[in-house]
Design a protein that fits this description.
The structure is a homodimer of 192-residue chains. In chain A, 25% of the residues are buried. Chain A has two domains: 141 residues, Sandwich (Jelly Rolls), CATH 2.60.120; 49 residues. With 192 residues, the first copy, chain A, is an alpha+beta fold. Chain A is built from nine helices and eight strands. In chain A, 51% of the residues lie in helices and 22% in strands. The N and C termini of chain A lie far apart (45 Å). In chain A, helix 4 packs across helix 5 and helix 8 crosses helix 9. Chains A and B meet through strand 4, strand 5, helix 3 and helix 5 of A and strand 4, strand 5, helix 3 and helix 5 of B. The structure holds a DNA duplex (30 and 30 nucleotides).
Chain lengths: 192, 192
DNA sequence: AAGATTTGTTCACTTAAGTTAAGAAATACT
DNA sequence: AGTATTTCTTAACTTAAGTGAACAAATCTT
């Protein structure tokens, strides 16, 4: 797990042994069980996540039912909105599978960032990159139909379709579970 | 214009006079005419934008017609994806109105960031904030209907509905111009 | 293993968006 | 000012998503 983390970091900055040891002294790694709720609606939090293994999802409860809006899997980093704006969370975060998650408290990060400017640089680069990518994903979503979005998902994140329940995928695609079922049947129909 | 910029920056870090002077020495401010194209599809660029006055939009050309996916107005900062991934742009950026735009070349930013860690911190905070907000906007988009999205837009960015052509708004809302017309008629109908 | 719950599919019906086309209104152009 | 172009609306028709319900399949639970 350490290696996975350091390999990831090395894409942004190169760490000395000392810096690596500082990170390892922080008790960042957590094993989580499927179904564990990491954050609840209404709750405040200072935790950012980095998925080493497994899958976590964010979901809202609107009119009584779940709307899943995002999945984070291996090597995905994620800071919830409530950490940034210091307000109660508007959504839940839970674990789709058993996994290993790195959890970094904001005070921790601030500490490390002020001691090692390298981390500050890494965080900036990573955020800039994720922001650009998020915007592109959003663009793609806006400019395509549910069917195109599903086909696109099969291409870009084929694992998700396997590891995540259909009804969660449906809201991730901005539609109802029944529509996803129908849409899939339609695609198979077209192939023949 | 200088004051607008420094007021904005002061929300993230406090600058010394020296640091302010460094910024002002960089020839960042540009007046732009409505219709000016800042970036074309296929083109490479290192420029980030900060809108002091006016409105810029990003749009794709898909099957021959424009799909507008984002608007940036007063105090919005924006770095195109092609700057981050060093690849040719997949979309255009153009000016919706006459305006004043701050344009920062990446070399410039790198220079300033390495001389003044404060800027690095500001960029990290700003990116983190924008990323969190973008995700929330995306969530909202996914979990609502075109009509809800339009009503939401009237609440949150009422200026946009005034200053931007309907057909650009339509693709921003993920629908066709005719559907936006119909949807607006439907809303007015409901009021009576 | 039996029963309960969650998950996924199908169907009939409703609602709204996509499509194509025509025309009105506003804006830009010379 | 008059013409051309762009922008916006309306309408009829098509297509696909939303809704509610029933059922099948898979998965917990005990």
């Amino acid at each position: 797990m350490k290696n996975i983390l350091f390999d990831f970091i090395s894409k942004y900055v190169s760490l000395s042994e000392e810096e690596k040891n500082v990170l390892l002294s922080l008790d960042l790694f957590h094993t989580v069980k499927k179904g564990t709720i990491l954050l609840e609606e209404g709750q405040k939090s200072n935790d950012s996540y980095f998925v080493l293994k497994g899958c976590i999802r964010t979901y809202y409860i609107i009119d009584g039912d779940e709307k899943t809006t995002a999945f984070y899997t291996e090597l995905d980093a994620y800071t919830p909105h409530c950490v940034i704006n210091k307000a109660p969370s508007e959504y839940f975060i839970s674990c789709v599978e058993d996994g290993i998650i790195l959890i970094a408290d904001e005070n921790m990060s601030a500490d490390v960032n002020s001691k090692f400017p390298k981390f500050e640089i890494m965080c900036r680069k990573l955020s800039e990159e994720l922001l650009a990518k998020k915007q592109t994903d959003f663009d793609e979503f806006k400019t395509s139909s549910p069917e195109q979005r599903y086909l696109n998902l099969i291409q870009k994140r084929p694992d998700l379709v396997q590891r995540v329940p259909q009804h969660q995928l449906a809201s991730y695609l901005g539609i109802k579970p029944q529509s996803l079922s129908r849409l899939r049947a339609r695609i198979i129909e077209k192939k023949n």
